[in-house]
Design brief:
The complex is a heterodimer of chains A (287) and B (209). By secondary structure, chain A is α+β, with helices and mostly antiparallel strands. Chain A has eight helices and 15 strands. The two termini of chain A are 29 Å apart. In chain B, 12% of the residues lie in helices and 40% in strands. In chain B, strands 1, 2, 3, 4, 6, 7, 8, 9 and 10 form a nine-stranded mixed β-sheet that branches. Classes of the chains: A alpha+beta (287), B mainly beta (209).
Chain lengths: 287, 209
């Protein structure tokens, strides 16, 4: 717990999607999420957290202390590490819970990073608040969700085949965005990191996961997604040296040619007023 | 010494969940005193003080938006079922997934007026706490990033001397609203009748629990 991070951080991540759906909306027939007021695309906080978890799971192969608590179904060699064993000796219930909590933080990267609600009905032991906070991401410009109808040269059942006289074709749908550049803000609190033991090594792994998570999340639905830019503001102190919103304002992302729709990252210009960064804050351009 | 503090807070989204609509979350129309207290505590708090919310100024029209997300259905419990020998200590999201909607607020902005009570421990120089809070706000410092109801909705904050003009006029009854949780009394929720008069909600009134 002693090597937890000593600085506050904010970060701005730019990622883009080409002919894909970065985050489907269950309310909208899995169309890309859209802010109904502005037409800008959205991806939720939890969508990105899922990718960070999956990357760490893949990269660290479920070895403690980088185990992942909330997993997607992947066939992995499952290792048995019951937290209960670790705290078996303790008979006092509330002490047992707090010991189990410490154990969870120690062993699981996602609990240490994002926190987890671990409470039972009869004994609400509260929760672990992780140091890393994501906001929703938003696209720089309004996005145009399109639908492509696709065909399949096979059918599911004999009944369908008979109904089509052996033609065996079915139609499906794909929703996608031709191009969208998204911007997301995040926050990392050093005092909360102290409580969960989120360390410099964890932070390094977290930056790596932001850089690489889309490269390990390929699928038919996603199209081409890539992390384009990560700018980190490192404060000299635990509590911070400047208001976050003023730091975020220093990064401006604009379309170069407003008359044409954007179709590539090169259609955008990222300007960063580095010289205006408050004293006591170090800007780091990770990539 | 000046009495109390004024803090301007704003953000893109907010979700102050109504306790009677917690599964498919629906936000109150405005920030609750309890959420406002959470924002102040995220900036500065010590066990020797207790923040008391006096007034809340609502600076933007109330607008809602609906967001549906995949969530984990159950909480994690520290018991034999989740943490037993012979089973892995992890959850597969697919086994335990729910899609839940949230009715969230868009583009919120408030001015929070508050003071604190000394809770009677030895560290009780009110001027000191006030000065630390003001210093932190002016530097943009915080213990952790404050949020509007849920952590994915971060709060921007700045010190506020002059309260801007209200956009609301007249009297609006917002009904019964959560005031705060009484932690000393077995986490009893306390409610109050929130009335917005010319955009201002006075939170200093009798609570009902």
């Amino acid at each position: 717990m002693n090597d937890s991070i000593q600085n506050r951080y904010e970060f701005v991540l730019l990622f883009d999607v080409k002919n894909g759906n970065p985050n489907g909306d269950p309310d909208g027939g899995n169309l890309p999420r859209i802010d109904p007021e502005t037409g800008h695309g959205i991806t939720t906080d939890v969508c990105l957290k899922r990718k960070v978890r999956n990357y760490v799971e893949l990269f660290k192969e479920n070895q403690a202390p980088y185990n992942i608590y909330i997993k997607e179904k992947a066939i992995l060699t499952e290792r048995r590490q019951p937290a209960y064993d670790a705290v078996e000796e303790e008979k006092n219930k509330s002490k047992k819970i707090s010991k189990a909590r410490v154990w969870m933080c120690k062993n699981f990267f996602d609990v240490r990073t994002f926190g987890a609600v671990m409470s039972t009905k009869e004994n609400n032991c509260g929760q672990v608040r992780g140091p890393v906070q994501f906001a929703f991401s938003q696209s720089i410009d309004p996005v145009v969700p399109l639908e492509a109808t696709i065909t399949r040269m096979a059918v599911e059942t004999k009944k369908e085949a008979d109904a089509q006289d052996g033609d065996n074709r079915t139609m499906g749908r794909k929703t996608y965005i031709p191009y969208g550049l998204y911007r997301v803000h995040g926050f990392i609190s050093a005092p909360l990191a102290k409580q969960t033991g989120f360390s410099e090594n964890d932070l390094e792994l977290f930056w790596n996961s932001l850089k690489n998570m889309f490269d390990h999340d390929r699928s038919a639905a996603r199209g081409e997604m890539a992390a384009r830019k990560l700018i980190v503001f490192k404060h000299d102190s635990e509590l911070g040296n400047a208001p976050a919103h003023r730091l975020f304002q220093l990064i401006d992302v604009k379309r170069k040619d407003e008359t044409r729709p954007a179709r590539a990252f090169s259609d955008y210009e990222v300007t960063f007023a580095k010289d205006k960064v408050t004293a006591g804050v170090t800007p780091l351009e990770m990539f | 010494m000046r009495y109390g503090i004024k803090l301007r807070v704003w953000g893109n989204y907010a979700l102050f969940t109504r306790p009677e609509m917690k599964v498919e979350r629906v936000s109150y129309d405005v920030i609750t005193p309890s959420a406002a207290r959470g924002i102040l505590e995220a900036i500065y708090w010590k066990p020797s003080i207790r923040w008391m919310i006096d007034r809340i100024h609502v600076m933007q029209p109330v607008r809602f938006e609906n967001i549906r997300r995949n969530e984990l259905a159950n909480r994690v419990s520290v018991n034999q079922r989740d943490m037993d020998e012979g089973k892995t200590v992890c959850r597969y999201i697919e086994d335990d997934r729910q899609q839940r909607a949230s009715m969230v607020l868009r583009n919120v902005e408030y001015v929070i007026e508050a003071h604190f009570k000394i809770t009677g421990s030895d560290d009780s120089d009110p001027g000191k706490h006030l000065a630390i809070f003001e210093r932190r706000v002016k530097k943009g410092q915080c213990f952790h990033r404050p949020y509007f109801g849920c952590r994915e909705f971060p709060v921007n904050f700045e010190w506020c001397d002059e309260i801007p003009a209200a956009v609301f006029t007249g009297r609006q009854d917002l009904g019964f609203m959560l005031h705060d949780i009484d932690f000393a009394n077995d986490m009893t929720p306390q409610f109050f009748r929130a009335v917005m008069q010319d955009g201002v909600i006075d939170c200093r009134q009798e609570v009902i629990s």
